[in-house]
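The following block was generated as part of the benchmark described in Methods. Ligand: flavin-adenine dinucleotide.
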Amino acid sequence: MPLSIAIVGAGPSGFYSAQALISRGIDCHIDIVDSLPTPFGLIRGGVAPDHQHTKRVSRTYEETAQQEGINFYGNVQLGRDISVLELRSLYDVVVLAIGTPLDRGLDVIGGRKRGVYGAAEFVGWYNGHPAYRHLAPLLDRKEVAVIGNGNVALDIGRLLVRTREEMNVTDMPDYAIEAIQNSPITDVYIFGRRGPAEAKFTNVELREIGQLKNCVPMVDPEEMPDEIDPNLSDRDRRLVERNIATFRSFAETDPKGKGKRLHFCFHSMPMEILGDDRVEGLRLQRTQIVDGQAAGTGRYYDIPCGAAIAAIGYRMGPIEGVPIDLRGGHVINKDGWVAEGLYAVGWAKRGPTGVISTNKSDGDIVAERIENEIPLGSKPGRPAFEDHLRARGVRWFSFEDWKVLDENEKATARDGAPRRKLVDIDDMISLINRSQGVASSTSE
Ligand SMILES: Cc1cc2nc3c(=O)[nH]c(=O)nc-3n(C[C@H](O)[C@H](O)[C@H](O)COP(=O)(O)OP(=O)(O)OC[C@H]3O[C@@H](n4cnc5c(N)ncnc54)[C@H](O)[C@@H]3O)c2cc1C
């Protein structure tokens, strides 16, 4: 009997796992389940809309999804529509590829004021994620603070200062373009606790900040280190040197002629969100590096801002039947193994680190483990799963349904844009029902 395998999560790690299982020639049926009607995880909902070249990787996942033996079940949420225990009773193997969808909280005084956002919700908002489309962030002041020194902070900063022309050719939803373009934002501050040598920006993304149409990067040349940590590997040293050279070139840029500024503020630790019930400013403590870590100096400064967006990492929420490492924010596992027949891959396995391709080896490892550890199938899988969904009244989306949405998004795009994203699940259901000429409540 073929193995019945449920992969929960249709992001990169879910698709790489499915592809690895197929490539090994394992006799199996694979059902890829996702809480959203649309596949591709953070490729659709995280990767910046002005980086369409990066999003193109989803074409590979499309090919995987359309292979014999693989089905997609969108709009099915683990923990709401089916439990881990139920899935494990129906499938020989369950692979958790659910990423780390929640924000790590910003631990500062006043961190719950209106106008404080986490990157998951803010990025989800500008990327048209159905859960965050109503966020309506406060963008009514000239200054915005972004906290964090990784590429996600850069993405957010960059998108807040892009021109309308630059945004129009992306798949950013109209509501996000209008909100940003109609805002008075002129200055975005990106804060890092440590220095430019410790920042996690990749150099290509950093250099892009110097090429924006109406924004100039600002950095204090005094912040540049006199020397680079001699203990770094050659590779890391080269990466740091490249970033420092880029920052130095920013420091020499003439800001004249550009209307907006993106300020890189190093050695600055956020301490307090200022304001009554909403963000009016941010209080920071100057830091110095002691043994590679940022230590407070007791010197403080304030900047005015109307919103503070924390890009300081992601975590998983609790899921019944899944052991979670609260510190790392991921599933407790031994090289992908969680319990008999239960595995984890991608960010759910490792926590929120690495680029898209980093998830590929997780798929290879889990496929090898499954081949060795679960050689024979004995559980019903797909038909019993569909019975379960029907009994619960779940309106699931097949991959063919997604293709209908995909075609519609492409056909309705703004001039020059790749697609106009559907952002409301009810609208997606209506569209599929219309395309099928039915008003059914399940998709088969
Ligand atoms: C803002 C941002 C920008 C990024 N930009 C880049 C970039 O430019 N280049 C790059 O190489 N990498 C980038 N990355 C990293 C890259 O996106 C990740 O490495 C990759 O998406 C992780 O894949 P994953 O499959 O583990 O998780 P995800 O992509 O998060 O996929 C998880 C899937 O699980 C689903 N899911 C979650 N919970 C449930 C549930 N309870 N039930 C059912 N389904 C569920 C989600 O809907 C999602 O589809 C970026 C990450 C972020 C956050």
